[in-house]
Design a protein that fits this description.
- By secondary structure, this protein is of the alpha+beta class.
- The protein has three domains: 305 residues, Catalase HpII,  Chain A, domain 1; 75 residues, Catalase, four-helical domain (Hemocyanin, N-terminal domain, Up-down Bundle), CATH 1.20.1370; 151 residues, 3-Layer(aba) Sandwich (Rossmann fold).
- 28% of the residues lie in helices and 15% in strands.
- It is built from 18 helices and 19 strands.
- Strands 1, 2, 3, 4, 5, 6, 7, 8, 9 and 10 form a ten-stranded antiparallel sheet that branches. The chain has a seven-stranded mixed sheet with strand order 15-12-11-16-17-19-18, with helices on both faces.
- α3 runs antiparallel to α4, α4 packs across α12 and α11 packs across α13.
- The structure holds CIS-heme D hydroxychlorin gamma-spirolactone.
- The site of CIS-heme D hydroxychlorin gamma-spirolactone has 26 residues, from β2, β3, β4 and α9.
Length: 704
């Protein structure tokens, strides 16, 4: 326990030491000279020329001119948070000497950065993309970085192709269009010619690429790594993060609209959740494979385009990560954090995965240009809590003041210090390797389709519909017909039905033959439909009110939802307050026009004749409801509120509930005459909210 407290406290103290709070201070220059005037530059007379000797203005502008640093070449857009990781128990000690994974008495501070991949730093959060999920563990044995994604596989086998892939997915070079989107010719040209991408493309076209929240997505280390125990024995390992809130996604149309309504949607969600004490939680789990079993799979464990199905090797829980503190300063912490796959600690080691090997070069290299020199590990967010003592010296931004006259090993002048460590050291796993130097892809990497098919087979009906729609959207934006055709040809090797459905949507002649019969295998764990749907914590619910609203049900529902951890907000045509049917004042949280249904998980429409009349005539309110229905969200109507919902759907939905509660595809309606919440209404609504979306709702005919 002593260790637990001291690790977390050390990191905290370290950061505290660097924190600057302007409260109560006076303005100075960088040199500490006090300033009493910073709004006017030094000029000759009131209207005369500015003087070069205005060192205050020059310092201020020079610093400003250099404020921006190069954004990350990929994963430029991101959000970060601090937290802790604590193992559940010590079972993993048999496999690794990494104590932070096996000592339940040890709580390790962490910093996590979530990101999108393709967009630039100012791009929208809700684009269709992979999400980065990078965790820095400040362990007592040094920093360990698990630089993962929310998708368990990658586009390519070998890091040497990474620049090609990134050039293909980034905005096209001649016109820098499109921003943060994969729906364009160069990406799909690359995909069609590089079939190893097919498995990853299936994930990218699925709802996994549209997370509702960073708090509701899985994370994966992707590669097979190695754990090493005290006896020096290795065990293959794959790392998994599972969110306690389950895995939930946005709808594509909704995601695109949010990109305009609130481009910071995921960033805001993470920030607000932490500010309100709704701390994101993830369970770390591992899949372990004994070295003797390495070749017992129908895929190569060194191939990062493949998974090991959970049904084949179960995920064993290791511990929990809780994110409980927002950074104080975005630039200092989230922008300057530097992850590196080669930041490893004793007990964890690499494998020969060629993607991982190349990453081990790339991350260090990129930090040098991005953070301007080799001393970025001294930036507070990157600083280990483990003691650092090297003979490395000087360089840009050196902030350590090294004492003494020796910076070499061995030395006699400083008593031989720093001395070679003899315990707790990192010893490379001694894998025996032999072979010729060749440039050749392993035959065991050349199955490009079977796991793409496995993924497709594992999807629920609605997930498949979304995948087909995504392929149609993306290929529909591709100008070159031969690229569309080539992708359909590739898809025909994944599944004939999938290829046919996509072809029909993009004007390509559907393939006539099934070139590769579907193997019929599936892995139910791959479906989002099979993750947690038992909580409504932090889900946002819009309650639409206007003057004349029946307040009873509103108050009861709002209290019940808050009591269960959801976040209901009252929205009215204007800010301020509305008058209830009983003439009382009811405070409003937001004006409807500043928000949109796409920013909520569910909508509630209370009754009250005057309110219903007002909102019926308000196009914004009607659109709000119709759009929520279109996006498969739970909608609840109480009393005459049902009339409003009926009108918003152009009466496509016949919403009648004479006696009991009606539930038509997740539109919950209380009996027409009611002015109170009927028994069981809250529970039914919460069940719908916990399920998140009613993907089976037929929405084609509903206008939005
Ligand atoms: Fe990478 C950033 C994840 C393959 C080269 N990568 C970066 C980040 C994440 C990943 C989450 C952002 C870290 C942060 O928040 O600062 N990358 C992955 C995963 C991969 C992967 C899961 C495949 C399994 N990456 C990959 C390859 C290469 C790179 C094959 C090059 C050979 N990645 C980089 C980079 C970045 C980066 C260029 C950009 C900014 C940075 O490193 O710090 O070096």
């Amino acid at each position: 326990m002593a260790n637990e407290a001291s690790n977390a406290d050390d990191k905290q103290r370290q950061l505290d030491g660097m924190r600057v709070n302007p409260a109560g201070t006076t303005l100075t220059t960088q040199q500490g000279v006090r300033i009493d005037h910073t709004d006017d530059s030094l000029t000759v007379g009131e209207r005369g020329p500015t003087l070069l000797e205005d060192f205050q203005a020059r310092e201020k502008l020079t610093h400003f001119d250099h404020e921006r640093i190069p954004e990350r070449v990929v994963h430029a857009r991101g959000s970060g948070a601090y937290g802790t990781f604590t193992p559940y128990d010590n079972w993993l000690a048999e496999y690794t000497v990494a104590e932070f994974l096996s000592n339940p008495a040890l709580t390790t501070p962490v910093f996590v950065r979530f990101s999108t991949v393709a967009g630039s730093r100012g791009s929208a959060d809700t684009v269709r993309d992979v999400r980065g999920f990078a965790t820095k563990f400040y362990t007592g044995a040094g920093n360990y970085d698990l630089v993962g994604n929310n998708i368990p596989v990658f586009f390519i086998h070998d890091g040497i192709k990474f620049p090609d892939f990134v050039h293909a997915v980034k905005p096209e070079p001649h016109n820098e269009i499109p921003q943060a989107a994969s729906a364009h010719d160069t990406l799909w040209d690359f995909v069609s010619l590089q079939p190893e991408t097919m498995h990853m493309m299936m994930w990218l076209m699925s709802d996994r690429a549209l997370p509702r929240s960073f708090r509701m997505m899985q994370g994966f280390g992707v590669h097979t790594f190695r754990l090493v125990n005290a006896a020096g024995q290795g065990t293959f390992v794959k790392f998994h993060w599972k969110p306690v809130l389950g895995v939930h996604s946005l709808e594509w149309d909704e995601a695109q609209k949010i990109a305009g309504k609130d481009p910071d949607f995921n960033r805001r969600d993470l920030w607000e959740a932490i500010e309100t004490g709704e701390f994101p939680e993830y369970e770390l789990g591992v899949q372990l494979v004994a070295e003797a079993d390495e070749h017992g799979f129908d895929v190569d464990l060194l191939d990062a385009t493949k998974i090991i199905p959970e049904e084949q090797v179960p995920i064993r829980p290791v511990g929990k990560m809780i994110l409980n503190r927002n950074p104080d300063n975005f630039f200092a912490e989230t922008e300057q954090v530097a992850f590196h796959t080669a930041n490893i600690v004793p007990g964890i080691d690499f494998t020969n995965d060629p993607l991982l090997q190349m990453r081990n070069f790339s991350y260090l290299d990129t930090q040098l240009i991005r953070l301007g020199g080799p001393n970025f590990a001294q930036i507070p967010v990157n600083r280990p809590i483990a003691e650092v003592s090297t003979n490395q010296r000087d360089g840009y931004h050196q902030s350590r003041v090294h004492q003494g006259r020796t910076a070499y090993f061995k030395n006699s002048l400083s008593g031989g210090c720093p001395a070679i460590a003899d315990e707790g050291v990192f010893r490379h796993y001694q894998e025996k390797v032999e072979g010729h130097k060749i440039r050749k892809r392993a035959a065991s990497f050349q199955d490009y389709y079977s796991q793409a098919t496995l993924f497709w087979n594992s999807m629920s009906d609605w997930e498949r519909e979304h995948i087909v729609a995504a392929f149609r959207f993306e290929l529909g934006k591709v100008d070159h017909m031969h690229i569309r055709e080539a992708v359909v040809e590739q898809l025909n090797r994944v599944d004939h039905r999938l290829a046919t459905q996509v072809a029909e949507g993009v004007g390509v002649k559907p393939p006539t033959e099934e070139v590769q019969p579907n193997h019929g295998r599936s892995s139910p764990a791959l479906s989002q439909a099979n993750t947690a749907t038992d909580t409504i914590r932090s889900r946002k619910v819009a309650v639409l009110v206007a003057d004349g609203v029946e307040a009873g049900p509103v108050t009861a529902l709002v209290e019940a939802l808050r009591g269960r951890g959801a976040v209901p907000e009252l929205l009215a045509p204007t800010n301020g307050a509305v008058r209830t049917a009983a003439g009382e004042e009811l405070a409003v949280d937001r004006a409807m026009t500043t928000m949109a249904s796409v920013l909520y998980d569910a909508v509630v429409v209370p009754g009250g004749d005057a309110a219903v009349t007002t909102l019926s005539a308000d196009g914004y309110a009607m659109h709000f409801i119709a759009e929520a229905i279109k996006h498969a969200k739970p909608v609840a109507a109480v009393g005459t509120g049902a009339t409003l919902v009926g009108r918003a759907t152009a009466n496509v939905m016949t919403l009648a509930a004479e006696d009991g509660i009606a539930n038509e595809h997740g539109v919950l309606v209380a009996p027409a005459a009611t002015t109170e919440l009927p028994d069981g209404f809250v529970e039914s609504f919460c069940d719908l909210l916990a399920a998140h979306r009613i993907w089976t709702r037929p929405t084609a005919a509903i206008p939005a």
